[in-house]
Design goal:
It contains 5 helices and 8 strands; from the N terminus they run E-E-E-H-E-H-H-E-E-H-E-H-E. By secondary structure, the chain is α+β, with helices and mostly antiparallel strands. A hairpin with an 8-residue loop joins strand 5 and strand 6. The longest helix is centred in the last third of the chain and has 10 residues. It starts with a strand and ends in an 8-residue tail after the last strand.
Length: 129
């Protein structure tokens, strides 16, 4: 399941990260845990083209993307070796931004410690959920 947000509930709300897991190429993060950690961070701005570089491999529901609020910050995490953080929540917002010509979005980027705390799999961690 590359680039999917797996909602463990039947409710697919646009901004409720509870019980969601973002999975990308053998890595996975607890989005609810990341959202709790993100409350301690400032919101900055990100260039959509740069932060959304992995968008081609993330599955998007265009109907859902049309309804998302672009003022809601993306959640991103650093991982070893890439030159930019990876978005773990907000791919529908990135899609809508691209479709509507928006070039910047708000983003919260966790530090290494908080990224590790919400990572469920990948980077030497076997599946924890």
């Amino acid at each position: 399941m590359s680039g999917d947000q797996v909602d463990r509930t039947s409710d697919d709300t646009a901004h409720d990260p509870h019980d969601q897991v973002f999975v990308l190429l053998g890595w996975a993060w607890d989005v609810a845990g990341a959202a709790r950690a993100a409350a301690r961070y400032p919101v900055s701005r990100a260039n959509v083209a740069e932060i959304g570089a992995l968008g081609a491999i993330v599955r998007i529901d265009a109907d859902r993307a049309a309804t998302v609020d672009l003022s809601w910050p993306l959640l991103a995490v650093p991982i070893p070796h890439p030159d930019r953080p990876i978005v773990i929540d907000g791919w529908h917002r990135i899609h809508k931004a691209r479709q509507t010509g928006v070039t910047e979005l708000p983003v919260i980027i966790l530090n290494d410690e908080d990224e590790r705390a919400c990572r469920l799999m990948g980077g030497g961690i076997t599946r924890r959920w």
